[in-house]
Amino acid sequence: MAAVTCVRLMAHQLLSAVDELAELLTDTVDGGASIGFLAPLDRATAVDWWRGRADALTSGSLAVWAAYLDGRIVGTVSLVLADKPNSRHRAEVAKLMVHREARGSGLGRSLLAAAERAAAEAGLTLLHLDTETDSPAESLYRSAGWTRSGVIPDYARTPTGELRPTTIYYKYVPVPAE
């Protein structure tokens, strides 16, 4: 596989890439990933969802990275920053997506590492996420040093509508030394 570049997107970049991002989102859902959408996910809904992220990027409550391969977006990951005064030391890792054509290449690990580095550089010390229990993503998080916290039964529906449990993970990230 050629070199992959992970880039943190600004709102205008996200809006310029909304069609590619929508294709990635629909591919991820069509591939069975439980990331908040039911199948079939139509392109217009995917475009609207991505457009809806632009204001959060502008406000700083969301950070999104896109992974480019040969000039095409093949993956994303987001950090959702806490808005309460007592929780500004943490963020949620959300919507880690890898196009089916790029799975198994280490791209998910690269995106996760980019989000972890940015969190540490921003002074965040705790990250958390949830993922469908027994999904392929669980092995990624465990191998990347994340700690399993627990399981919530019947948490979300898969793209096909089946209720499935979710597993909660967390990871402490070291703040870089000055």
Topology (elements, then pairings):
Layout: E1 4-9, H1 11-16, H2 18-30, H3 43-51, H4 54-59, E2 62-69, E3 72-81, E4 90-98, H5 107-121, E5 126-132, H6 136-143, E6 147-157, E7 163-172
Helix pairs in contact: 2-3
Q: Could you characterize the architecture of this molecule?
A:
The chain has 178 residues and is an alpha+beta fold. It is built from 6 helices and 7 strands. The chain has helices at 11-16, 18-30, 43-51, 54-59, 107-121, 136-143, and strands spanning 4-9, 62-69, 72-81, 90-98, 126-132, 147-157, 163-172. It has a 7-stranded mixed beta sheet, sandwiched between helices. Strand 4, helix 5 (107-121) and strand 5 form a beta-alpha-beta unit. The relative contact order is 0.16.
